[in-house]
Amino acid sequence: MRFSNSGAAGSGPTRHSDPVSQAFPRPRLVKPTDHMARAAGVVLAGGEGRRLLPLTRDRSKPAMRFGGDHHLVDFALSNLLNGGIDRILVIGRRRGDDVTALIREAWTAPARPDAMRKDGAAVIRICSGPYAGSAEALYRNLDDLALAGADHILVFAADHVNRLDPARLLEAHIANRAAVTVAALPVRIGEATAFGVIDVDVTGRIRGFKEKPAHPGAVPGKPAWALASMGIYAFDVGALDWVLRLDARSATSRHDVGGDIVPRLVAAGAAYVYDFAADLLPGQTERERGYWMDVGTIDGYYRANMDIAAPDPLFRLHNAQWPIYYGHPGRSGSTGPDLALRPADLGVPKIEGATVRRSVVTSGVLIGAGARVEDSVLLDGVVVGRGAIVRGAILGENVAIPDGVEVGSAGTPGCTISHGGVVVVTAADRFAEPTGGRDRSTYRLRRDVPVHGRERVREPGAAWRIPPSLAPHPRSAS
Question: CB-based contacts of 250: which residues, under 8 Å, 6+ apart?
Fold first, then answer.
């Protein structure tokens, strides 16, 4: 579906001390050549990942591995950087969590001074909660972006797998003089209850927006499909400031961007949709058009990994024209004069005469002789014993599978099994008990069969304090 770029006229944005008494600030028209330089990005990386349990018991969702050595947060950061957004604020859940540690160690200066652009510097900064919701996270940090001179703010979630050009999203947003533009794509009506569902007119103006409705409305003429929000937004900064202040005064708000902020701007008649599937990015195949996966559940996470492991993948990690960068502390490499972050290769495991098919493995995995791994995802530090069989499973960090054991599609007692039948094994399950100290290199298995491997232990980073410029700002709503 394609929409025209018609929009209503209006006056410029202003900042308001009293959102209740002031009228809605209509965005102003800017020259197309100016908009990228006056835009900033926000990555919301505070997701706990409860629907991904038990994989997220000891790791937050944005810091989860995906596709080998990537992390989920890498996709949002790469899309923003590839699209020319060089000022990015990553908002984590709390100070010292694994997301803020990952960004600090792998993506930012001074940890990676060679990773930042020298001229028109690409700056990735970090701030942390706790926050009551995604809207409060924006509210308490909006001044930091506004003082940097941003007229437009692009908000990306840190748990989506996709390629999206923020420049095209912003162009459509500015052409419509919208307060908010919501990236959207059609999903099957039975899956739409997990998303914000959008009703639009022929110009692309949003007439209705319901967050996770029990009975989603269908796309006109397509009763099997609903138009779903991707959780990716372009905001006019004046309109965002106005609606965030209004939301902060509400005693009934959940302080959620999708559930509270977008519906307010829809009611103001200033919300538009961006048709994500209409554009094909450089280096993409037609098969990849419109690919987007919310990996918030075990089945979604597994399905997205299988999509990239297929012989003809629905989503290709490797695209030299639109790379998905990743960073690892202590590793170097360069993709050009601007960025030292390099596209990740699928993890290179140590495979000793084993068979691995249609699977995604992370570097540091050990697979023993005669083992067979099919349609599975193996995360950091996994050891698969000699002659073991793993099918249709996710093996979490530091899992050790004994020799000759079969795990997977037939069902595995004592492990988590998703609604879609994916078996999830974690180090807390019955297969392995790591022994020894911090440098332990053997596992005592409950079958008393030794499997040799190693557990990679992340050493605690040096003490780090959030700079005063990034500290949450207590703001008055009056």
Answer: 260
Q: Determine the 3-state secondary structure of 226 from DSSP.
A: strand
Element (H, E) at 199: strand 196-200
Say if residue 257 is exposed, middle or buried (CB neighbours under 10 Å; 0-12, 13-18, 19+).
buried
Beta bridge partners of 351: 367
pLDDT in tens, 32-47: 446 777 899 999 987 6
The helix (run of H) or strand (run of E) holding residue 408 is strand 406-408
Report how far residue 163's alpha carbon sits from residue 156's, in angstroms, rounded to the nearest whole number: 12
Nearest-angstrom CA–CA distance, 425 and 54? 8
Give pTM, 2 decimals.
0.78
The distance in angstroms from the start CA to the end CA of the chain is 42
Each domain of the chain, given as residue ranges in start order, spans 32-304, 350-452
Quote the CA–CA distance of 384 and 33 in Å, as a whole number: 54
Assign domain 350-452 to a CATH class.
mainly beta
Structure tokens, 384:
């698969």
Assess contact for 78 and 325: CB atoms under 8 A.
yes
Tell me which DSSP letter residue 179 carries: S
Please give the CATH number for the structural domain made up of 32-304. 3.90.550.10
- pLDDT tens, residue by residue, 91-134: 887 655 777 778 877 776 544 433 444 334 467 777 777 888 89
Question: 188: closest CA among 224, 218, 136, 228?
Answer: 224
**What is the β-pairing status of strands 70-71 and 87-92?**
unpaired
**Residue 130: is the preceding peptide bond cis (ω within 30°)?**
yes
**Residues 105/111, Cβ–Cβ less than 8 Å:** yes
Q: Give the E-state strand segments of 312-354 in sequence order.
A: 325-326, 342-343, 350-351
Q: Which residues contact 330 (CB under 8 A, 6 or more apart)?
A: none
- Contact, 61 vs 137, CB < 8 A? no
Mean pLDDT of the chain: 75
